[in-house]
Design goal:
Blueprint (H helix, E strand, L loop, with lengths): L19 H54 L6 H30 L4 H33 L3 H34 L9
Helix pairs in contact: 1-2, 1-4, 2-3, 2-4, 3-4
Length: 192
């Protein structure tokens, strides 16, 4: 990660100088790609997981808001690798919700009530969610600590995004499900 840290000979095969307009174009293309990816992921989640997909998309929005707020609070610049970190965060957020929904579906098939299926689904998915996100945070923290420039930006957005993901996937979505269950007469839970 640091120049000269490995005892290998470095041979420059290509060198490119990027001007401010080309850099701006790259960032704009990255933002457009991330937005398109987020829209497609949201559409898939809503189509495949019905009401659960709507909850997951809302939590994903909260996740992105938290990520941007933390970045703004610490006055961090959003770079192209940082945008890639956000895109990866979106994928991991969806993964956590899919794990929860699958566990809830298993509990519903086992004959549990909707409330019990929600509670047990979250309890059973929690270990897998924390395990997958924690290993990603460890790798991102190493990039953040040892990296420079764009590598550090990627590590920073990924770390913040994954920590926000644990909060939104485990806490925010469960609050939404429990609120809906206590305030509306729900006879069937549509999660896919």
């Amino acid at each position: 990660l640091k120049a000269g840290a490995l005892p290998a000979r470095i041979e420059i095969i290509d060198r490119t100088v990027v001007g401010p307009s080309l850099g701006r174009d790259s960032i704009n293309a990255g933002v457009k790609a991330s937005l398109l990816g987020a829209i497609l992921v949201a559409a898939f989640m809503i189509v495949y997981h019905s009401a659960g997909g709507l909850v997951a998309v809302f939590a994903l929005g909260v996740n992105i808001i938290i990520l941007m707020a933390v970045m703004a609070y610490f006055r961090q610049t959003l770079t192209l690798p940082g945008i890639a970190g956000i895109a990866l965060t979106i994928g991991m957020a969806v993964d956590a919700n899919v794990l929860i929904f699958e566990r809830m579906r298993e509990e519903l098939k086992a004959g549990r009530t909707i409330g019990a299926a929600i509670d047990r689904g979250y309890d059973r998915a929690l270990v897998a969610i924390i395990d997958s996100n924690l290993t990603t945070v460890i790798a991102a923290a190493i990039l953040l600590a040892m990296g420079r420039g764009s590598v550090k930006g990627f590590g920073l957005t990924l770390t913040i995004g994954v920590l926000a993901n644990i909060f939104t996937a485990v806490f925010v979505t469960k609050v939404i499900f429990n609120f809906a269950l206590s305030h509306f007469h729900i006879k069937k839970l549509h999660i896919g």
